[in-house]
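Our consortium's second objective concerns turning raw sequence data into structural hypotheses that experimental partners can test. To show how far this objective has progressed, the report includes one record in full. It was chosen at random from the queue rather than selected for favorable results. The single chain below, 153 residues long, was entered without modification.
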Amino acid sequence: MTYQIRKTKQGDINELASVYMRAYACEPWNEPDWQFEQAYARIDELFSSSNSICFTYEENDIIKGAILCKLLSWYDGKKIEWHELFVDAKYQRQGIGTKLVQHLESTAPALGVNEINFWTMRTEEATQLISFYKNLGYVIAEDRIVMVKEIDI
């Protein structure tokens, strides 16, 4: 098994959009309504940002997942804001997500990053997902809240 984790390239976005759709159609997200154009736009928005940090997992020339982040400045140093971690549904539970997170973490010190943060679902279906993140050393931040307001369009 030959795999590599490499910087995401513009040419990866088509395949990553398809992988993203397959990943989000299954547990715990159960979001089968993603359209290719929406998935492509989401990935392209994150990848094309001037401060993006995006890595793609490829094994035997097959793209199986990615982690998409942004590097942001804060008063106490640089932070990585992790926006997406996804692995094709066919390849989940094979350690790919763990390898992507560990790769991201290994790049952080050279960038002067003192924190990686992200938000995720808080549902009963997401308990395995939360356990996955806790096993990687992440904790639920008690001092932060995600606030949402839906807008009618």
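The partners drew two points from this record. The chain has four helices and five strands. Helices lie at 13-24, 36-48, 96-107, 127-135. Both points have been shared with the crystallography group to help prioritize constructs.
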